[in-house]
Amino acid sequence: MDNMLGYLETLSAFFIFLFGLGVFAIIYMYIVDRTQNKQAIRRNYPVIGRFRYIFEKQGEFFRQYFFAMDREELPFNRAERSWVYRAAKNVDRTIAFGSTRNLEPTGTIMFMNCAFPTLEEDAVPPSTITFGKDCRNPYSTDSLFNISAMSFGALSAPAVKALSNGAAKAGCWMNTGEGGVSEHHLASGADIIYQIGTAKYGVSDRNGKLCDKKLIEMAEKPQIKMFEIKMSQGAKPGKGGILPGKKVTAEIAQIRGIEQGKDSISPNAHPEIKSVKDILTMVNHVRDITGKPVGFKAVIGESLWLKELLEEINLQGIEFAPDFITIDSADGGTGAAPQPLMDYVGLPLKESLPLVVNLLVEYGLRDRIRVICAGKLITPSKVAWALAVGADAVNSARGFMFSLGCIQALQCNKDTCPTGITTHNLKLQQGLDPKDKAERVANYHKYIQYGVGLLAHSCGVKHARKLERRHVRIIQDNGLSVALDKLYPYKKTDEE
Q1: Is residue 315, in this structure, part of any structural domain at all?
Q2: Which pTM was predicted?
């Protein structure tokens, strides 16, 4: 009994202590809130007003897990992310009862199955395409789907390792992004596309200009198959790369040739590119130096320059054309970007891809210049749509991030990514096992290509690169659909 009473007295004393501590905390917060002048809500409603900011901060979490329906979330809804997760884990990807996809909204795409679908025994793997067939070192691949530009810096070391090893297992390429190439990219032997950003990280001299000696050094690495000159990207057209100082580690600083711990801000354009002639000059210079295929990446907005570029190519000679053009959608992703640029600048891929392909056809350059595209293409249907419109290959960044375990926490710019993908916090990186995630990357690639093949066979063609615009219809404002070859017709040439 005495022990029980002693226990109760101790518990009571502890409760009184906690109660007093709570009262003190409330009084303290009241005084602080009433005397501060930065937040009107807290000053007018001391203590209680703090809940407004707590709820605002937690809003994204509650919307994602409790309130958003399967097809509602942005930038990627739960249905899309779920498919990627299941594909990456190699678990059941079938669904039951009926689709939750609404077929009525304007812009909805539908593939047109034929009466005589391709039989399994008649199906063939995707055809091989070659970039820069006249280069000293052309590049050939049969991969439809590849890892888009994500720099080491925006991504953590374990994430880069996982993607590189996954790409090697899958047989697809991996784009370095503008941060240069690291040992993590090269260790697996995966095919690498070296991106030359406006800051020219990894291939610049002390003055920030393109260095031929460093270009040659990069070209001598057998894993580096092509070079891509980044002119702009969908998430931030007219703005260079932004890497917050907290993410500039010693290793990243060394690779990029910048100061550790300070913001890495790339110029908003290449100083030496001010006209379409300058684009061709730089493309051909890099190609002559490296002997490897060279192209450029851009988000399309005002398009007159494209016509001028193609006219200039036909004037100078077809051999001066870039080996590929990478088209980035206005709804592309990034580690950090100003919201006005991310929300309001550039054309989405549904407009820019057919525009570019049609211009290449019109100017007789479609066979010379390969087309790569990127922008929220993370499921088989989206990839198949891009191939049908005219792309030779599709890139994805966020799709492969989901395969690594990304939960769309929207913290890429804060160095607090809970999955370890976009943070350099070693504690958070511990949760990302590069060996396990590499398998998931390869699985995701495998089932994207498999799913695209299913759609192609349903449309009656033997492999995905045979898909055409006539195989896809899109819902219009009146609720009825129209075939893409009618919506985006090719301009007839004089010869035709």
Answers
A1: yes
A2: 0.88
